[in-house]
């Protein structure tokens, strides 16, 4: 007999933790640090304060050595972010899929999984509770000792303390034990922190490893990118389920107000045009208009500049005469056929302002009508593209500052593309190319990938950025194998098209791909100009170095052959040699 069973989200991820990156001890300790650091940075960004993050990893098992592999570690992360209110602390850290990032604005966290999954992993490998200390800057600091009830997906509060916040401290401290392999993960962890410092040059990050070594990643600037603002759903990004959820909570009594209130960049005119396109606009039968309706219609027509431009001032008798002759069954078609020089959109706005437009109550839509409304949203081309105010790109100055701080290149070019969209989700691509400095010489170009300021270190070959870079003909940009060259690609969006829950690589969305390609081409052309000038200087130096070597001898022999005593002045020629030597040095 077949039996059925329901499991909680926590139980699901307990059984399938590989899909969120906890595949082995070394990867698990890396993901744990990454997820909690991202939470800390997001918390500071929300307040628009300069982030200060302290990470300490210590050994609980004294027998752990690089040779032995796995061990038990104690991880502590402290930040100066917004803090968490006391009533939300247990659920924020003890309930899977509970978080503050389920809003339409850019954030590092996406799924509400990372921090809680790190704590869940620690619990299932050590069976020890997590300790949370947090304050929003008020008079109290709250401390919780928690475990997760995996089967019920609920926090288990083992202990709770409250103390006075004498120093008005604000932030969060998370401390728990986990099984991991730091020595195999060390290179990835340090690279992650380095790249995080690169993409958030306004953050101070400190890391103390199990050997007590302190790694400092100091901020290079106090300038922060503008924080993102929450936005509404864009019509192009709506599906049937989303629309049904909006309908359930709306207080609008007609579709016209519903579209304007609940959808991004949909105003009165756009709403009217769309509902007309979708077939949800109703207007009165012109044959059944009452005298007061005719008077109101004439008054509205005479107020319209577009009507007066072509037809002058109209009287009620003229309109009544047209009404008697018309075969149209609604006012919209009547006015359009009677006044062909006036656009349909203008007539719609006129009728709406005069109170002749009727639309259905969204709560009374039939299932088939909801499906049709969604389909029409996908087909309508009159919606404005999403506004980028819900995004927080770094900007060229901050990106340049981060690269200069971490890579110290000889040459750098940075580009920020204009906002674009895919499936109704806004996104911005930022690209940079750097040459020389601390960039290692490799056969392949060094690629730094970021999404919403998160470094992506794994599954590089599957990422759209790497595929774009490998598809380009770099010889045309004077790039040769073995050059100290790095390319940085940063994608920020309200919904990054990750291919996995582990957030390691970005899918090949055509709209995203073309923006990345154009961004890389733009900075590559600047690199080409730099390398061409560099090559020209090198050639001139080589040519003039020959002159500088033989020119004095030629001058001396020429003087002797001419039978003169005074040698010609060669200083001007030697100055040109020195000029190129200075350029090349």
Please write out the topology.
Layout lengths: L8 H7 L9 H23 L4 E8 L11 E9 L9 H6 L19 H13 L3 E7 L3 E10 L4 E11 L5 E11 L1 H18 L4 E5 L5 E4 L22 H10 L5 H8 L5 H11 L3 E2 L7 H13 L1 H7 L4 H10 L5 H8 L5 H10 L3 E2 L8 H13 L16 H12 L3 E6 L3 E3 L2 E11 L10 E6 L2 E3 L7 H8 L13 E9 L16 H52 L9 H14 L1
Parallel strand pairs: 1-7, 14-16
Antiparallel strand pairs: 1-2, 2-6, 3-4, 3-6, 4-5, 7-8, 9-10, 11-13, 12-13, 13-16, 14-15
Helix pairs in contact: 2-4, 2-5, 5-15, 7-8, 8-13, 12-13, 16-17, 17-18
In spatial order, strands of the major sheet run 5-4-3-6-2-1-7-8
What Rg is obtained from the alpha carbons, in whole angstroms? 33 Å
Helix content: 40-55%
User: Which topology of the largest domain does CATH recognise?
Assistant: Heat Shock Protein 90
**Amino- and carboxy-terminal Cα gap:** 82 Å
Supply the number of structural domains: 4
The secondary-structure class comes to alpha+beta
- The backbone outline, from C-alpha atoms, is flat
Low-pLDDT stretches: none
Name the CATH homologous superfamily of the largest domain.
Histidine kinase-like ATPase, C-terminal domain
| Largest sheet composition | 8 strands, mixed
State the CATH class of the largest domain.
Answer: Alpha Beta
**Helix count, DSSP H or I runs of 4 or more residues:** 18
Under the CATH scheme, the architecture of the largest domain is 2-Layer Sandwich
Sheet-strand content, in percent, reads: 15-25%
The total strand number stands at: 16
Mean pLDDT equals: 87
